[in-house]
Amino acid sequence: MVQNSEPGKKNFLKPKENTPKHGELFFDFEGEVSEPQITESGIPYKSKSISVVSSSYLTDDQTYFFGKRSAYFSGRRNQIHLSVSGNSLFGTHPDPFTISIPIRLGEQGAGSVILDRTVFVKGKKYGISLELNESKPTLYVNNLLQKSDGRTASFILESPVKLKRKTWEVISIYFDTLNHKYIMYQNGIETAEYENKQADTIGFGFPENDSTPLVLGKSFYGNLDGFHIHKGEPEVEYTKFEKVRYDDETKIGFMEGNTAISPVLETKYSNSSLTRVQWNVEQPKDTMLELYFRGSNQKFVDSNIHLPWTRIRSLESDLPKNKFKYYQWKLWFRPDPMGNSVPKVLALSFEYTEQTPPDVPTRFRLESNPEPGKPLCFLWNSNHEKEVQNGGGYLIHYGLLPNRMLGSVFVKKDKNGNLAKIDGNEDESGFQNKRFCITEETLVNNIYIPEGELNSEDFRPLADQVDVSRKEKRGLLFQPGLTYYFRISSYNRYLNEWDSKDQRSPLSPAISFSFPKEVSN
Q: What is d(CA 211, CA 204) in angstroms, rounded to the nearest whole number?
């Protein structure tokens, strides 16, 4: 995947173009002009025996074949000199190899020298030169065919097909040095061929100890990009992108496509809901583009293989229903079957509704000063949030200092003796007078929670809150002669102590009550 995100320019996502899988050299001109080596394309090879001696060209980020920019050449002022001495492909007995150059011809480039490595030895010219004659690619091979009697021979590969102006075209030249066969391709189509079957032709090679540089863009007007040299014949019929393949044995066609995956993103609050997806895409005919989404309240990493992806078929309806705090999107691009064009995503955004925590309950207060041995009763106003009223609840916290709570009360015994959430809906309660009373038995019930009594099919929060183990919960009983401070908080039905702790409100201001103590002599 390639992402263009230069300031002031249009951002987009698209699949990466095809690049050679093996080779001696690859220039995509993403690097510095002084050394236009590989950057974003990520080709794993870099020749140690081919190096940049000097380089002069203009970077062009308005048109490119690979990556995000190409090299613009303006006559003799712009050239790249490469040292190739010591490289076996430019030695006296090279293995078969290929040179490929994507070219975008300018207005003045009809007569140009694109590539040149020639030297004069005793008045005789040796080497190769790729030129344009009236826009027709022509390769001159000077005295590189070796004869049995010590002589050398030359030949020319001349294409009858003109290069189009201001459009990218690929010239590939295959040097089959073992069979003395040399082929020129334009956009994957053979346009010129030379084969020497003479019995006295014994080899192909450059002069020994030749230190002449390989000059790219020697006298050229236009753009070059993705210049590469590699052993062997051209890897495939050249296409800019992946093309459909067919296996004659299995009778199965396949086309893998490319994937772009976002980092794991995060919303402010847990239990967010996806409401809408918006994108702006360019999708040429016969290409495919699919969008996938996954999210969870629990944090996950890119490499997570257990969290499933959901395909988004409609951008406004039938969206994934799961709640999330962490989410990730994935795009799948598939080129057209010929590998000439791909979809492009110019903009992509996700709209979601966040589940904000509830407000602090208001007017938390004691009902009245209780009589000795009577329950301690509290009143407060009902929260307005539906997620608190339907499935949520309240927690009453208590401690010996206003800002240090040592225990909490979150469950009660209902009329049937079962544990239930504190909802404030007791006898004599109302919307502005939610009511709950605490006795010593209430404290004991909250300190010791029997296993499994609070499981729920719809929501886990209460079960999670109190744990399903028989461990003693943190808490203490009321003691006479001490002042206790009380605070209240509310929580949504989505509260989960493992992945949704933010669904609880802050604590209310503290109120206090002092338990009397009988002091004897």
A: 18
How far apart CA 198 and CA 215 sit, in angstroms, is 31
Query: Model's pTM, two decimal places?
Result: 0.61
Query: Can you give the pLDDT at residue 467?
Result: 41
Q: Are residues 98 and 193 in the same domain?
A: yes
The chain-wide mean pLDDT, for the chain, equals 84
Q: Are residues 189 and 277 in the same domain?
A: no
The pair of structure tokens assigned to 229 is 């040299």
Sheet holding 12-14, edge to edge: 2-4, 12-14, 344-353, 273-282
In a domain, 477, yes or no: yes
| DSSP states along 36-104 | ---STT--S---SS-EEEEEE-EEESSS-SSTT-EEEEEETT-EEEEE-TT-GGGSSSPPPEEEEEEEE
Last residue of a domain, one of 323, 353, 383: 353
Residue 90 lies in a domain: yes
Q: Provide CB contacts within 8 A for 189, sequence distance 6+.
A: none
What whole-number distance in Å separates Cα of residue 378 and Cα of residue 487? Answer: 10
- Residue 208 CB partners (closer than 8 Å, separation 6+): 92
Inter-CA distances, 274 with 98, 305, 330, 349, Å = 51, 22, 15, 11
Q: Look at the chain and report how many structural domains it folds into.
A: 3
Shared domain for 173 and 142, answered yes or no, is yes
> Would you give the distance in Å from CA 324 to the centre of its chain?
19
Please list, in sequence order, all residues whose beta carbon lies within 8 angstroms of the beta carbon of residue 374, skipping any fewer than 6 positions away.
none
Q: Does a structural domain hold residue 161? A: yes
Residue 414 lies in domain: 362-452+460-515
Alpha-carbon distance 342 to 282, whole Å? 9
Give pLDDT < 50 ranges for the chain.
1-10, 39-42, 44-45, 451-472
470: Cα within 13 Å, side-chain hemisphere = 2
Q: Are residues 370 and 347 in the same domain?
A: no
